[in-house]
Amino acid sequence: MSQATPDRRMAELSAYRERQVELVSQHGRRSARGNWHAHARIGIMGGTFDPIHNGHLVAASEVAWVYDLDEVIFVPTGRPVFKLDKRVTNEEDRYLMTVIATASNPKFTVSRVDIDRPGVTYTIDTLRDIRAQYPEAELFFITGADAVAEIMKWKDANSMFDIAHFVAVTRPGYSSKVPLPEGKVDMLEIPALAISSTDVRERARNGEPVWYLVPDGVVQYIGKHGIYDEQ
Ligand code: ATP
Ligand code: MG
């Protein structure tokens, strides 16, 4: 057996890693479900997350399963363009609740791109920022069926479809009457939960329980900081 010095071992390891990266870029990669994909597959779940609730988490988890995603990035909005006339909770509270809610899922991560970008949040900017971070990945923007009806009103709608696939998940109580852009948006029927952030805020404000509508850590965060007490 050869006596490798630490330096030599490090050099071997780094050569091995480089070779792995080269193989992946030539031949693709194997997902957790055992399928080969040419590139990483990444979901983007944008939302106000005021607060994040189990409906968001189930939707992201289901899309990750069906589309064989490696990761879902939750992106809390900065100043949401369609809620400019409404009071929205401080972005750091919304960001922290999103981190707490997603921490236990190894596939879920949280990005600050929208809250760190000054001004109103437009989804096209979110997509461009994530694309810059993952030039090679296949991107999937996840949205609720209610939000997708608005898509064509979104800034630079057509360039968004060049950057990412769009997956619209069904949501109880919302039916899209607006025709979707032909072939641009997948509709996915999921076992969606009849939960909205609006209901959660209202319940918290009235002192009603929000257990099991949002993850345990978020229940505690809302109580500890009293974030919906005064609205
Ligand atoms: P609000 O009531 O304040 O509008 P919300 O519950 O709609 O909050 P958002 O942060 O606006 O939550 O939603 C982010 C995204 O998640 C949107 O695309 C929305 O359609 C989707 N979504 C929200 N709730 C659900 C749910 N229960 N099931 C599936 N998708 C959902
Ligand atoms: Mg909403």
From TrEMBL:
Associated pathway: Cofactor biosynthesis; NAD(+) biosynthesis; deamido-NAD(+) from nicotinate D-ribonucleotide: step 1/1
Where do the Cytidyltransferase-like domain residues begin and end? 44-203
Q: Name one GO molecular function term.
A: nicotinate-nucleotide adenylyltransferase activity
Reaction catalyzed: nicotinate beta-D-ribonucleotide + ATP + H(+) = deamido-NAD(+) + diphosphate
Signal peptide positions are: none
- Which keywords belong to this entry? ATP-binding, NAD, Nucleotide-binding, Nucleotidyltransferase, Pyridine nucleotide biosynthesis, Transferase
**Function summary:** Catalyzes the reversible adenylation of nicotinate mononucleotide (NaMN) to nicotinic acid adenine dinucleotide (NaAD).
Query: What is the designated name of this protein?
Result: Probable nicotinate-nucleotide adenylyltransferase
Originating species: Bifidobacterium canis
